[in-house]
Amino acid sequence: MYTLPSFKLDDDDAWSMVNEAGAGFYVRPSTAGLLSVFAPIVVDEGRRTISTHVARANDWWRDADGAEVLLLVLAASTYVSPRHYPSRLTSPGVVPTWNYVAAEIRGTVHVHDDPTWTRSQAEGQTEHFESSAETPWRVSDAPDEFIDRQVRAIVGISMAVTSIEGKSKLSQNRPEVDHDEVRRALAEGTLAEREVARWMGDA
Of 24, 55, 104, 203, which one's alpha carbon is 20 to 30 angstroms from that of 17? Predict the structure, then answer.
């Protein structure tokens, strides 16, 4: 991923962004060309392994074991108009751009076609995403027979991580007056624009 030094996230911030995003596109090569699947992301404590699962009916997992995988994560994204640049009134050489927060994670796929592994992964994944709830839902809240059927319909995936690169392009290259006006304008816009404005406030 092409990243100017001023836009680069350090590894800790990149992983924090990935955890907040919670899901991404897993892309891998195959004999039929590139295959992608959008799936949740659960990172282990050492940040060396990511786990998820995919539908058994999805061919993404077939012949995937040992393949290189690129995980693309997008946390926030929106168009930025030059009309939000006060500096254009004295320096009109401006163009539109796009603000976003994203990461690329590279690694190797391991397929787990084992109901015990997959159920454990599904339970852990559910606990991970339910952890902030006042009364979290648990897999055990559903009937065992139902969960057994659901588990048979999915295949577990783990990704051995080899690298991460995070990017936060949030008008850092603009004069402060432009950055602040972009953030103010986006904070009054669509949901996607407000999310970028939130990230700009943290940048």
Answer: 55
Res 202: pLDDT? 67
Q: What angle do CA 66, 105, 115 make, to 5 degrees?
A: 50
CATH number at residue 151: 2.30.110.10
Query: What is the per-residue pLDDT across 74-108, written as a single tens digit (0 to 9) for each?
Result: 999 999 999 999 999 999 999 999 999 999 999 99
What is the CB-side half-sphere exposure of residue 106 using CA atoms within 13 A? Answer: 6
Angle at 64 between CA 41 and CA 55, to 5 degrees: 55
Range of the domain at 37: 5-202
Structure tokens at 155: 């295949």
> How many domains is the chain partitioned into structurally?
1
Q: Which residues of the chain have pLDDT under 70?
A: 202-203
In order, the DSSP letters of 170-191 are SSTTS-HHHHHHHHHHHTTS-H
Which 8-state DSSP code applies to residue 10?
Answer: P
pTM: 0.93
Sign of the Cα pseudo-torsion (196, 197, 202, 203, in order): positive
C-alpha–C-alpha distance, residues 185 and 99, integer Å: 13
